[in-house]
Write a structure and sequence with these properties.
Elements (H helix, E strand, L loop, with lengths): L1 E6 L3 H10 L7 E7 L2 H11 L3 E4 L2 E2 L2 E2 H11 L4 E6 L4 H9 L4 E4 L4 H24 L1 H9 L1 H14 L4 H10 L8 E8 L5 H11 L6 E3 L7 E8 L5 H7 L7 E4 L9 H10 L4 E3 L10 H15 L4 H17 L4 H19 L12 H19 L6 H12 L6 H7 L4 H12 L3 H16 L7 H7 L5 H12 L3 H8 L1
Parallel strand pairs: 1-2, 1-3, 3-6, 6-7
Antiparallel strand pairs: 4-5, 8-10, 8-11, 9-10, 11-12
Helix pairs in contact: 2-3, 7-11, 9-14, 12-13, 12-14, 13-15, 14-15, 16-18, 17-18
Length: 485
């Protein structure tokens, strides 16, 4: 269903529009309300409205200012202006700016319905044209991460149409073939969010995970899983047992994507299924063992000596035996610890089947430590280091992974894997990171407009720049600029 944003400084007007118009019959849903320009723009960033119904005169600027700002975010948006002002200059300007309809207060319900239907037709026509346009595919490729994130967020927060969800997911190169689906809701410390996302993505690779942050906080994220087994809940929890997660909630199995929103709402509000830190699940309940693991991971992250890391690993195994933890559980926990260390240090190598005994696990751990120690000697010459240098120096260009791979005389797929394994993040993350870092510096110059800064940092779309700036800094570019003045 298309989304409508209502903007009017009078509550009674907003309430009236909400109540008297049969929105559901028009196949649209009210996605938000605002009483001023700034609030409307903030909401537009979150919901991407297809239709905006607004007054001409609003706190914080005229409705025409709002048109400019929201069109930078949502190019296909259609505006319906409902106003008490009959000034011809306003009407002419509205026509010039391509407003879909211009109605006078008090507007009749039938007039509003007809205006909404015309706006729907224009939005639909825009999308149909874009799908046929070759530039549409280019747009998808250039903005794949943001588009995937929006798609997954909508999938979990709104009831989706099954066929359309599968079609859109396929266009965004997401694996959504099921035959069953689960959604996890994970809670972590805010400062450990990105690291947790990378570890979860690696450990749940057999389920083709798709990770998204559908909620407006820095501690929760969701993972959409494809499943071939209706009874894989325990296996999933075992795979995550070595990741530092404060709470894991796991949904019931679904055979339709359209059921995921309902399941996620249950996880948010009612259903507390799964494992909290402290609940007995593969040895996580023991505080002392958990503390040793956390100390070990900190030692790896902050490059402590290999002797200290080996001591902590050995201490964990001895402590687990003293507490009479079953050997099978010790093997699984140790196996996951080795894999976590491998990911944190960037040493290549994927997850393997659980070894039959602790001796083999410990031998692999020792080999891994030797690899880490050897790798430190060549860190400056590392392929990923050279790739990051290229990105940092050429972030303002239309830079692609293929270009950098050609410079380093290797395939783009191999380079992509090396960057991800070595740094924990992909090419797209680092390109946006260096662009946003540059933008933060350029915003200190008050003579440059935000659009100019975005362009100089390699963004051709103001909306995509704004999305990424918020994602990496937690603020809008304009708020960042004001805070630094």
């Amino acid at each position: 269903m298309l989304k409508v944003l209502i903007v009017d400084d009078e509550y009674i007007v907003r309430r009236g529009l909400r109540k008297i118009v049969p929105w559901e019959k028009l196949e649209v849903v009210i996605a938000g309300e605002a009483e001023c320009v700034d609030d409307a723009v903030d909401i537009a960033f979150k919901v991407y409205p297809d239709i905006v119904i607004c007054d001409i005169r609003l706190p914080g600027g005229e409705g025409f200012v709002l048109i400019d700002e929201i069109r930078k975010i949502v190019p296909w948006v259609q505006f319906i202006m409902i106003t008490a002002h009959s000034d011809k200059q306003y009407m002419l300007k509205a026509i010039y700016m391509g407003v879909c309809d211009y109605l006078f207060k008090p507007a009749k319900v039938e007039d509003i319905k007809e205006a909404v239907m015309r706006a729907r037709e224009k939005v639909t026509a825009y999308h149909n044209k874009m799908k046929k346009d070759q530039s549409y595919q280019k747009f998808i490729q250039e903005n794949l991460d943001v588009l995937r994130e929006n798609f997954l967020r909508n999938l979990l927060l709104e009831t989706a149409q099954e066929e359309k969800a599968l079609e859109d997911g396929s266009a965004l190169k997401l694996y959504l073939k099921g035959p069953y689906y689960r959604v996890l809701r994970l809670t972590v410390k805010a400062e450990e969010l990105y690291e947790a996302e990378q570890l979860v993505s690696s450990f749940l690779e057999p389920w083709s995970p798709a990770i998204v942050q559908p909620e407006d906080n820095e501690r929760n994220f969701a993972v959409l899983l494809n499943s071939s087994d209706e009874n894989d809940e325990k296996i999933i929890l075992e795979q995550l047992s070595s990741v530092r997660i404060e709470q894991i909630q796991i949904s019931a199995i679904c055979d339709k994507l359209s059921d995921l929103a309902k399941e996620y709402r249950l996880l948010q509000g009612v259903k507390q299924v799964g494992m909290e830190q402290g609940h007995h699940q593969m040895g996580q309940s023991d505080t002392e063992l958990q503390q040793i693991k956390e100390t070990l991971y900190e030692a790896v992250k902050y490059h402590d000596s290999m002797e200290e890391i080996k001591r902590l690993f050995h201490q964990y195994m001895i402590c687990a035996k003293e507490k009479e933890v079953p050997e099978e559980e010790i093997v699984i926990q140790s196996r996951n610890m080795v894999d976590t260390i491998r990911i944190l240090t960037g040493v290549p190598g994927g997850r393997r089947e659980v070894e039959a005994n602790l001796h083999e696990i410990y031998q692999e751990f020792s080999d891994l430590c030797n690899q880490v120690q050897e790798g430190k000697k060549y860190l400056l010459d590392d392929i990923s280091g050279k790739a990051l240098y290229f990105i940092k120096k050429r972030y303002m260009e239309d830079l692609s992974l293929e270009q950098i791979a050609a410079e380093l005389f290797m395939s783009s797929s191999y380079l992509s894997r090396i960057i991800k394994e070595r740094t924990g993040h992909g090419f797209g993350y680092w390109l946006n990171y260096y662009r946003i870092e540059a933008a933060k510096k350029k915003l200190s110059n008050p003579e440059k407009s935000i659009e100019e800064v975005a362009s100089e940092c390699g963004y051709h779309s103001y909306r995509i720049f704004s999305e990424n700036f918020r994602k990496y800094t937690g603020k809008t570019a304009s708020t960042w600029r004001l805070d630094k003045q």
